[in-house]
Amino acid sequence: MNSVASDTILEIENLRVHFPVRRGFFVQRAAGTVKAVDGVSFTVGRGEVLGLVGESGCGKSTLARTIVQLVPATSGSIRIEGRDLTTLRGREQRTLRTQVQMVFQDPYASLNPRMTVADTLAEPLLVHGRASRADAAAQVAELMERVGLAPRLARKYPHEFSGGQRQRIAIARALALRPRLVIADEPVSALDVSIQAQILNLLASLVREMGLSMLFIAHDLSVVKHISDRIAVMYLGKVVELGTAADVIERPSHPYTRALISAIPSPDPARERSRQRMVLPGDPPSPIDPPPGCAFHPRCRWAVETCRGQVPPLEKSSDGRHVACIRTADIED
Amino acid sequence: MPLLTVTDLRTYFHTRDGVVRAVDGVSFSVEKGETLGLVGESGSGKSVTCLSLLGLIPQPPGRIESGTAMLDGVDLLRCPPKVARTIRGRRVAMIFQDPMTSLNPYLRISDQLVEPLLIHEKLSRREALTRAITALEEVGIQDAARRVHFHPHEFSGGMRQRVMIAMALITRPELIIADEPTTALDVTVQAQILELIGRLQRERGMAVIFITHDLGVVAGLCDRVQVMYAGRIVETAATADVFARPQHPYTRALQRSIPALQPKGRALFTIPGLPPDLSRPLAGCPFAPRCAEAVEACRSIPPRLMEVAPGHHSACLRVQRGELVA
Asked: Of A49, A108, A168, A194, which to mutate for an interface test with B (greatest number of B Cβ within 10 Å)?
């Protein structure tokens, strides 16, 4: 954790990603803005795994896509090893972007069905001039071994592999350009429990052995807890809590984090039946028309008048974590 | 007497690459008012088992090769289509996994909710609409009188799943089959839906077959658990027994792979290998190639589901011989 300040790979500052919403078919008019990401700041240190959790629509995937510039940022900065990706253009941006690679959720959709594993893995090497056609094969074999696939399978197509193996191919592709940071967007949620564990072990060992940094996005907190050093919790485009994995999971502070952790069904019948589950009323609000003040107040049982009026800032609390809630001191366990 | 008794159900799919034995000799029963959890990974046959009961297997390529499913003296697998229709939707109803695709996007919720009432109970449209509004209120949809006229796209995912539940319950069935009803939902919404199903089940005394891959969901909701692997039931017992004293190596391995139960910082436990290809004949126990406890006999003798402790059945040869102790 101490290495974070001295050795930062990714630094995001006050990032906003807004999408205009248009209504009408023939005459389109602006009908509002979806604030998918609304003022997010955090850092990821060298060799660190930052877990990012939140429910559908909270902006975690948009955030990931913005970091790799698949979606343009509206404002704010994304610095990779000190250089701002949002202000660079053309070749310079492409070169810096190779430092960040992405693993997507669905290995059935993210691999080209008409390309063999060898083609898929060699493509980034050839495009960026990291290998000639002649020596690409050796690098492909090395990548495949790294992710636990036999190099003799290189001539096969994605449909010949199981879901877990496909996700290994997707991970190998992300590693091809030797990035500093890998963004994994729900990399195990499409897989079965026993396969999930294999992929999580692989990601953890890659981080350890290659000194990678990782932004690990998931909605399943038990998975995130296992792999992350720190965890950030997002709600409606904002980070509401950020702290060490142990703090966030075992001693959640923000009311939303508490509800999220309480909602995880525990695979222990005795505990599951005796405990009081905190069930949140209602659905997450629409990001087009977020509630004023703290976006969570309509579903929060601790909300007071002030929560409706002002947006709580993400502030450092006494135990070192960051929480965006003005009521934390008044909530008893 | 059990509400539903399934005996030796076999559902095979005849594909170009051979016969896939998706469900291969499954027998179980469900008591009135009981919640039975059906657990297994993708391809273990849990969904095909339930679709077979409701006659929803596309035939061809699927074919129910053998078995009976008795509900009150009627065999669901062999009764004439007309009898099947009166049972389906009225006495047995299903909640599907994905509320986004299982509602008709062109029809208003009201039209979809009243349909079973018009068909099965011969109600007038007005009476049926009143029942539809009550059904929506029971699943916690506010302002139901107005929202009953909405189209599916006007609801969120969690709300659509509530509509699906309302639709399944509207004819007051005795048995509900819920196929991964919360898998497509967020955790906080999942918590709401699980609580709703639990409450309705208690109030109405329905039996529920709950299909899931999430052992956490089973722990809180089910009375009894049945674990499936490669188209067969490998273990069945009361929920507390399955978790505290699992009697099959697969159940133990499955339990050990849950990240939540494992200490942080160490490599997660994994089951080596992959589930077997069901289009090839299996000589012995289907789990033997991945099982750390397998001996020579496991690879040649097909195990049968037998009682190994009171109310606790396991299909593991070594457990049955008393060689493996929980």
From this structure: A194
